[in-house]
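Q: Predict the assembly, please.
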Amino acid sequence: MTQDKDRKQHSSTSDSPPVNQTGADPLHLRLAQGLSAAWPICAAYVPIGLAFGVSAQKIGLSPLEIGLMSLFVFAGSSQFIAISMIGSGAAAASIILATFVVNLRHLLMSSALSVFLGKRRSSHLALLAYGVTDESFAVNHHRFLTGEWDWRRALVVNHTSNFAWVASTIAGGLGGQFIAPGAFGLDYTLAAMFIGLIVLQVNRVLHVAVGAAAGVVSVLLSFLLPGNWNIIVAAVSAATAGAVILGMHARESRRRKK
Amino acid sequence: MTHSEYILLLFGMASVTYVPRWIPLWLLSGRTLPRWFLDWLSLIPVAVLSALLLPELVISAPPRHLDPVNLKLFVALPTFLVAAKTRSLLWTVLTGMALYWAAGKVF
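A: Predicted assembly structure:
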């Protein structure tokens, strides 16, 4: 079993994540827990996916082509951007560059997830990497922090939400034109999802400060930087400022102990 | 854009999306990371999510402009309260959608 390796891994990183003792749970239990963590994400993906399918169908993509993009790329905001660029006849290279810039933020998310994974076979990691999105990342990170989570459950979350995304974008391509844009507050799904995800991450005052700083800096930078660089630059600088504060705090309390 | 050009485009998009998702898992998993780096990583979720959210709430487009008094921001406040109270993603999303929809009817 890789269980013991996990434990060693975690105990070596001083006082961070809770030790994972759930690797031996039966498969159906892991599956059930993964599914119950994933289904709010799926519920939110359906309206967004439908909306994406409708816009993709409007620029002439078939349901098959829509489904393939969702399957290959699996990153909502960059897919919306790609659709509008394809629609305006942009060159493939510029669409790929835009996709890269928009999705570079996943680099940060995978780094934050890696802390909880321990030593894993690289094929497992490769499989898990495919499903790292804003939403699955936030849910998995929260679950890992609060314990009783492992990479298999994370994998269930990733792939279940992937399935919901692919299916709902195809459905949007097939029949989404019958849903009026903006009906039932569908425009607000993504914002509400982010609000819920942020609140799950907050468990100390520093988190509120870092979140507020990142938000404000991101808004300001969105007027100065092209594309979506504002998100990456704002997140990195706010997290860095927060880590500096944590570091100073730790040094201070060490000195007091002496 | 022909079908095969489109498939090539997808391969390009898929690669540039997948590689940043995979590299940190491959490089960092199973390593003992320094304390400051762990601190930094622990702040990344709230930082990224907030950097995604706030522009969504206060910027309107096109053309991109600051729009600090609008329904999206207004609805965000009760949605935050519900999120903090329930700590449930589903309730948060449903509340946000319902309030935004209702507010759109009223204003």
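Chain A has two domains: 3-201, 204-258. Residues 27-58 of chain A form the longest helix (32 residues).
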